[in-house]
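Office hours follow-up: a student asked to see two folded examples consecutively, so here they are.
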Amino acid sequence: MIMSKVSVIPKILAILVLVNISACDAMKQYFVKETVMCEGMEIFANRKGERLHIKADSMMSRTYTINDINVSVSLIPRLSRWYGGFGLYRPNGVDNLHLVIEEGVQHFSSSDEALEWLDWQNDRLGYMYTSSGLILGWKYQVKDERQKALTIEVWKFFVNGVELKNMSGANNEHLFIVDPGEPCQAQLEESFTPSKSKTIDGRLYSGKVIDLMYERDILPSKVEQAIKDGEAQSRDSHTFFFYNDSEAGFFWVKVDRSGRVVLIG
């Protein structure tokens, strides 16, 4: 009888472990908000001969394939907005591959502000988008076999709660989606309404900037201080001001030729 009880213990422990893992996964899934991909969805992209394939193995796990790299990872749900979005992220890599992954939804009060947001990192990530509204950007770097880095961003844009589609410049030939059945639908945070552009102390701010200022607790006076004393770098029709504040920390401000604050980060 004693032997029988002892033999049952490992089985009980295994069940407890499985229950705990299931509960942990369920808890994580409860916090998943505003993702782009759903289980079984695949993204195929070809940019100047560099092919990227992304598959959603589950709600929070993805497999990324590019050139000689094939890696499956679990992503982390954001519990609060980070630079405007919830969604999923991964800040580290696997073995000799450094990974930076972002997947989620960005909210805007106008399509013009959405395109301005895309312009922010377009030189680095080379964004592509479909007429259905999926946006993808990536950068793959290889220093040597022991040092590789892959940055991937997958987004959907919503303007006043409506998914933004049919943007000019869509590339359905080199970027396309395979859905598992019904198209994946982003689950939005219902309580959030994007701000509209507004003039504050004589300066016009985009709605996106107002939301980001609130998120990061940056006052308009701090923005003005950055424009006055920050390190200025002109790029095309905009100027970036980089500033390190004793309270707000390091941040940058993007201003157009009219003096309007386009974006902060």
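And the second, which I mentioned at the end of office hours:
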Amino acid sequence: MIYSRCNGSATSTSEKLMKIFRKQRFKLAAESRFAKYLRYAIGEILLVVIGILIALQVNNWNETRKSKLQEKVYEQQLYKEFISDSLSLDHSIALNQSKIEDEEYILKYFRTKPAVIDTNHFVINSLVAGRSVTFQPYLPTYNELVSTGQVGIISNKKLMDFIRRYVRKLNDLRQFSETDNQEFKKIYSQHLFRYISPVILSHFWLIAENKKPGTIDLSQLHISRTHPNITGFLKDPESFINTRNIKASDMEQVQLYKKAMKYYIRPILALLRREISKKE
């Protein structure tokens, strides 16, 4: 709308001036005053050029304005997505730290060799320890910018550099989760299922659904009916090695997640907040 008004005004003014120049030029031509005719002809050409330059400048201003508005929209979307990623990453860190506590609970039995074992808690902790907790990023806006070749619309190069490094870091995290961490979990679980039935875990999740942690009545699982061989598990040397390996792997994953949060997500959010506030 701004462009139309500005461009229309410039065109109208140019046309009026050109009519004046044209009438004067025709009059001079009729009077055979060539020198003055030439000056008016050149003036008419210059006027056309100036009019075109003004129109181009107005058009460029309008395109820049639209680009800035689109950039702000993308930045706002990126901000929401990185907020979501930060919350998801925090949740993954908390779940992994809880699993590490479960694994330490199991390792304690290998060290202290208590005469009495809490069967319910030992079985549930040992089964949960073998589960994987992975972080799933959510970056549709960045993926759209890359796929459509519009990455350049984000003018803050430092921001885009941080986002690219974050995406590369996610690939490293994914590779670790899908290779080393998963391999340790697979070995641990296959070994564990020789002594404790995995069916118990399915029943546990059914009971745990929509309940707060610590409020689940484990007696409802009737674990004793599955005849878990906890003594055999604790006497098997591989049990200690496998449990120690998954604990070390989960600890490494937590550290990787924390580094992703500290060195990538937080700086990205700070830069996005700054860019959005500048455009308010």
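Two things to take away from it. Residues 73-278 form one domain. Helices lie at 2-30, 34-112, 119-129, 140-147, 157-192, 199-208, 230-235, 237-278.
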